Amino acid sequence: MKIITTLAGLSAPVSAIAGTGLIENHSGIIACGCLSLLVGVQLLPIVFILIAMVQVVVSVVSKSSAVQHN
């Protein structure tokens, strides 16, 4: 019973503040943040693959007989 009264006592001021309009809805900002996080995570494998491709091309070109070393 003490837990319920404590939770009710803690939630009452929050409800009063929310009722006055002091707490605004920022769900659009949160959605943009989540979307940018998802896009960033999706781009990581692409970056790793591109780095690996460049490393392979550089190693093949450096071992190629077409490149002359002095």
Low-confidence stretches: none
Task: Summarize model confidence as the mean pLDDT.
Answer: 75
Number of strands: 0
Overall helicity = over 70%
Please tell me how large the radius of gyration is. Answer: 28 Å
Query: How much β-strand is present in the residues?
Result: under 5%
Q: What's the tally of helices?
A: 2
As an assembly, this protein is single chain
Name the structural class. mainly alpha
What is the element string, with H for helices and E for strands?
A: HH
Alpha-carbon distance between the two ends: 86 Å
Shape: rod-shaped
Main sheet overview: none
Provide the number of structural domains.
Answer: 1
Short description:
The chain is mainly alpha-helical and 70 residues long. Helix content is 80%, strand content 0%. It has helices spanning 2-20, 27-63.
Fold blueprint:
Layout (H helix, E strand, L loop, with lengths): L1 H19 L6 H37 L7
Characterize the structure shown.
By secondary structure, the protein is mainly α. The protein has one domain. The chain has 2 helices and no strands. It has helices spanning 2-20, 27-63. The longest helix has 37 residues, at 27-63.
